[in-house]
Amino acid sequence: MHGSETIEAPTKVRKVAFARLVNVSPGRVSQMIAAGLPVEADGRIDVARGKLWIQGNVSPTRSAAQAAQGALPFAAVPDAAAERLRLVKEQADHAALKNAALRRELVPAAEVEREWAGILRQVRAGILAVPSRLRQLLPGLTAAEVEAIDAELRRVLEEMADGK
Fold first, then answer.
1. For residue 94, what pLDDT is reported?
2. Per-residue model confidence (pLDDT) at position 75
3. What is the mean pLDDT of each successive set of 10 residues along the chain, which is 164 residues long?
4. What span, in angstroms and rounded, lies between the C-alpha atoms of 137 and 149?
5. CB-based contact 44:13 (threshold 8 Å)
6. Alpha helices, DSSP H, located in 5-164
């Protein structure tokens, strides 16, 4: 051997060595072989041909989670990154709602309903008290007139209760 001669990298390697060269697991190399990565008859992989096959057949942005979905039609393949982002947003929304409830910025619907029911009972009682107050304020009103006012107020309350 002369000093100018160098040892060249092997052109054909076993699966484990090829995996190290392309920075993937041996299992991933097996998957690529099943998908069409060219292999020599002795089971070795030609490094140059293997790298060319990877460049043409494996997307550098494709995640491992999407690998099994390659057979799906394009429209049916879920975008893993978008789904992950949606999940993170949902978790953030959940935490924000929980924090707002703890700070009492959000009130449970049952509490709001109870409060409004109490207010509406007071309004109803006030309206039903109008005829007797009018009788005291306007002593010249006849009993029939007071009854007519009372009947009209009750009719309006019933219409409101029926949602009309």
1. 94
2. 42
3. 60 89 88 91 90 83 52 51 87 92 87 93 94 93 94 94 82
4. 14
5. yes
6. 15-22, 26-35, 47-57, 80-102, 109-137, 143-161
Give me the residue label for tokens 């299992």.
27
In one-letter notation, the amino acid at residue 136 is: Q
CA dihedral 76, 81, 82, 87 (to 10 degrees): 120
Helix (H, G, I), strand (E, B) or coil at 45: strand
Is 13 strand, coil or helix?
strand
- The Cβ of residue 115 has, within 10 Å, a number of other Cβ atoms equal to 11
Contacts of 47 (CB under 8 A, 6+ apart): 9, 10, 11, 12, 13, 18, 21
Rounded to whole angstroms, how far apart are CA atoms 28 and 32?
6
Give the amino acid at 64. Answer: A
In whole angstroms, give the CA distance from residue 78 to residue 82: 8
The amino acid that residue 127 corresponds to is I
